[in-house]
Amino acid sequence: MSPRSPSVNEELRRRSRERILQATVDLVDTNGYEATTLGDIAERAGTARGLISYYFPGKRELLQSAVHRLMHRTLEAGLEREPRTEDGRERLARAIDAILGLTTSHPTLMRTHMAGILQAEGFVQCQEQQRLAFLLRDTVTRYGSPDVDTDYPLLRALLMGTVVAVLLPGAPMPLARLRAELFHRYGLDWDMGVPPDGGPPGGTQTPGSSAGRHDPLQSSKSK
Fold it and tell me: Taking Cα atoms as reference points, which of 131, 134, 114 lies closest to residue 122?
């Protein structure tokens, strides 16, 4: 039996890593972080426990990579769904809705993730996080930002803050209200992206449709 080629070995490693990441999402989302062990993840992924340690230095880093992978895939699907569009404002609306949608579809997972990145280690600079960052930066660029290096981290911070506000135990903010605030800031119409049922909060005018709406890009260009 001839040895496998390097390309075949690389594909097998990629698939194994993908299974580990997906198993982490599934188990933490269902059972919580503390109740999920690396042994559980290995069993769910159908791989050896030692292989997880080969790819990831610890459970916290594994979880961050797994959530960043989920966020990247969700964002990519949201941006490229039919009907396809190159309109920068629509793409930004889709990006916001894709990330915020994870707070309702995976609340345990997202709450655990946000708690983890607030620890001293911060972001894990993994390939999944880099892919997510690339898509968000590209979205800001297509939106028409004159200063992507400033506007991309600002969008990231606003999205993170909104996720925390929605998931805050004991004092959650309504997702629709927070979405309305984000859409107003970026001059987006309420019916862009994937608007929640019920229309704008309080029956108010569509946040992005008023003639005097705030346009952060215009403000930047005028300086």
Answer: 114
Cβ 36 vs Cβ 27: under 8 Å: yes
Token duo for residue 118 = 């607030």
Residue ranges with strand state E in 104-203: none
User: 151-165: per-residue pLDDT in tens?
Assistant: 999 999 999 999 999
Q: Quick count: other Cβ atoms within 10 Å of Cβ 121?
A: 12
pTM listed for this prediction: 0.86
Side-chain half-sphere CA neighbours of 72 within 13 A = 19
Residues 6+ apart with CB under 8 A from 146: 217, 220, 221
Task: Confirm if 32 and 41 have CB atoms less than 8 A apart.
Answer: no
